[in-house]
Amino acid sequence: MWRYLIGRVLQTMLSMLVVISIVFFLTRLSGNPIHLLLDVNASERDQQILMHHLGLDKPLPVQYGLYVRNIFLGDFGNSVLTRRPVTEHIWERLPATVELGLVAMLLSVLIGVPLGVYSAVHRGGTLDGAARVFAVLGQSMPTFWLGLMLILLFGVVLRLLPAGGRGGIEHLILPAFTLGYFTSAAILRLTRSAMLEVLGSDYIKFARLKGLHEQVVLWKHGLKNALLPVVTFAVMLFVQFLGGAVVTETVFAWPGLGRLILESITTRDYPIVQAGVLVLSALYLTGNLFVDMLYSYLNPRIRHARA
Amino acid sequence: MRARSRELPWFAGAILAALVFAALLAPYLGLPSPTEGDITQRLIPPVWTERGDREHPLGTDRFGRDVLSRVVHGSRISLVVSLVAIGVAGTLGTALGLISGYRGGLTDAVLMRLTDVGLSLPTILIAVVLVAVSEPSFRNVILVIALLLWPRFARQVRGETLAIKEQDFVALAIVAGRSSAWIIRRHIFPNVVPTLLVISTLQVGYVILLEGTLSFLGVGVPPPNPAWGLMIADGRGFLATAWWISFFPGLAMLSTVLAVNLMGDWLRDHLDPKLRQVGGRAVEPDEPAPEPVGDGVRRAGARGAAAGADGG
């Protein structure tokens, strides 16, 4: 058990280091940043001064060391465009991303779990078939297109919901559903197969033999035991929403971290791109670590299978 | 339902056949140019609407380019990108998986840690940054996707190799004094091929969505190429006035990915029943494992823990 956990922690740290290195070397490969900072007519001397000021005249390994150190000190430098500290920009945008991720997760569970239970109980019925189509479509749907089509339908044609931006609950519905559709489909399938497995088990047969009411058997004995993989999966999804909200945020003009990164790529504001990617990756990796620990704690089979 | 999943998915097969047909024959179908439009013919709606024009069955975009022609030519891009990216990733991943599984020891430990790292990265995020910094181009899109894809192959092939290595015919070959390279090539690799075929098919849909996402975000295939993702992005500003610009390429992408995924599920059930029990959870016989194949975005590096295929 401990061996597995320690291995998992080390692996997460290694992954983070790889992300840091990718980001560092990419930004160095993409050309000398002072050309972005300075006017094209800047003199040789000005360039030298700035290079020295930014530490770009030092050998690459030293630069890398300083870079890693600054990251651990929480210093990501200043935005090239606004001159404000990058951390301020990040903090401004993070809440919107988290909000959207949480609502999308909630929505996926609210759609996926009841439909999954129903499909398992009424296996082979009409709704099971419909749920199956819903799930299969969810796996093949291009998110950004789904988002646009929802805007077209609910925003343009029916004029029921706003097409973008952040505001009240009505602004959340379309982006949350777009972000959560694939995952509600996945949760549905997971709940269905977990329920089928549980319902076929001996203790459910025993509960029925005892003469318990069918609803009690289903919801108390059945769902409670089927829920474990679903819950861990839901937490994992939230983590992934953080890593992957770039597209949905772009489609719905949602002022989150993903969109900030994309905007900064367009304006070549690399300090923000670097910091944004690092923050999202760190959240993503630690989140996944947390999920794996939770999962192995709750389910000894996994723990031993992986050791 | 069980019987149905054993049958070849004809519907999916037909869509795929049409796609390959369109991709191969696109230049010979007598369609207008996909990249050069007639600016006087801009924003014409599809033929069945009031102002439709028979010259442009699915309408035209803001530059007067024929939407049907662009959708058809776009299939070439999706097909080429996914085939090449999967080819590169598959070759690299298979080679590393074979070596890792056969050698064992330190080689295996190092390669598998590398694979773990590769599988743990938030895919879409890394892809966006990689392509954006390295200038969007066909080659870079393919390379980046391949770079993010190889660990999936390596992991699975290594597992297979471990099992095959224990077979008698491998032991006999070792006794007969055959070299490791010979054994891997003649005994192990041929036995991995069915699995390889299944993983590759299951990845096609994912790669098409990933390429589409990158192109949509403007960090993928560069314009004026008729990539589906680019076309959808193009129509964003015209949702209220010219919905067809975004609608049809998206529909093409959805049906292609759907068809490939159905085909992949079917192949998996037929060629490789082992792959159905992934993630340590027994799966209903007629229920494909909750596969994380799908949307490039939410899928952003979706790993196996609860979702499936990657966590062997």
Plain-language structure description:
- The complex is a heterodimer of chains A (307) and B (312).
- Chain A has 307 residues and is mainly alpha-helical.
- Chain A has helices spanning 2-29, 34-37, 44-54, 60-72, 86-121, 126-140, 143-157, 169-199, 202-209, 214-244, 246-251, 257-266, 270-298, 300-306.
- The radius of gyration of chain A is 24 Å and the shape is elongated.
- Chain B is an all-alpha fold.
- Chain B has a single domain, classed as MetI-like fold, CATH 1.10.3720.10.
- Chain B is elongated.
- Chain B starts with a helix and ends in a 5-residue tail after the last helix.
- Mean pLDDT of chain B is 80; it is low at 277-312.
| Gap between N and C termini of chain B | 27 Å
Low-pLDDT residue intervals, each spanning 5 or more residues of chain B = 277-312
Strand content of chain B: under 5%
Using the alpha-carbon principal axes, give the shape of chain A. Answer: elongated
Largest β sheet strand count, sense and barrel closure of chain A: none
Mean pLDDT over the full residue set of chain A? 81
User: Which two chains have the most extensive interface, and how many residues on each?
Assistant: A-B, 74 and 65 residues
Q: Please count the beta strands of chain B (DSSP E, at least 2 residues each).
A: 0
Q: How many domains of chain B?
A: 1
Portion in helices of chain A: over 70%
Helix content of chain B: 55-70%
Major sheet size, sense and barrel closure of chain B: none
Order of helices and strands of chain A: HHHHHHHHHHHHHH
* Classification by helices and strands of chain B: mainly alpha
**What is the CA-based Rg of chain B, rounded?**
22 Å
Strand content of chain A: under 5%
Q: Quaternary status of these chains?
A: heterodimer
- Architecture of chain B, according to CATH? Orthogonal Bundle
The total count of helices of chain B amounts to 11
